[in-house]
Request: fold
Amino acid sequence: MAAAGSLKPFYIALGAIAVVGGALIARQAMGRGGDRLPSLSAAALPPLPVGPRGVVLGSDSAPVHITEFADFECPWCARFAVLTFPDIRRDLIETGKVQWRFVHFPLDGHQYSPYAHLAAACANDQGKFWPMFDAIYNSQGDWVGASHPDRALRDVAQRVGLDMPRYDDCVKNQTAWPQVLADKAYGDSVGLSGTPTFLIDGHKVEATPTADQLTAIVDSLIRVHAAAPTAAATPAHPAAGRR
Reply:
């Protein structure tokens, strides 16, 4: 009873996000692209990697897990990344309340997006995904529409401080591209209708929350988790493992 009652703020907040999102946010059209780099040969790609999708930020012991499906060319994703995500990172992720997972979801029709996702995946191979994530979104106006987006993104990689010979090799040979394709396949399996889309402890949210809305949701879920019986107290119903 206590757990069910404490979920009320969670659903109120979800409803508010849906109303505001439907009224104010123009959703990006979803596509099933992902192999749109001009030189990409799907037949030449290695098998898709296995295991959990996306890039994680935050503690594995965080009580709430949030997955974001996003496209680097999407203006609403950029707005969220630049204006809202810094507060979320500071107040929810760095405090241990939330583990965040970014999942690549390049949209069909966004001709520049694949270059950015490949660049970010190559940065991830050097352990610098999140600095590259910030730099790509902050410079979206520089590389979207550029005559040579790969060169513009290479400049971004230099500013981030990547090992450039290693980055150049990754981009040229597209060695990190299967990571993006695997993420895209995961997003397709979830049934997305646009970006950004969020999974908040398994609840799909297709409008963009504010930092305050997301904080209210997270705090309500933490109260639910705290009130729930532990696996030790209820051995007949073990807690499900978290991916």
Summary: The chain is about 50% helix and 10% strand. The chain has a mean pLDDT of 80. The longest strand covers residues 64-70.
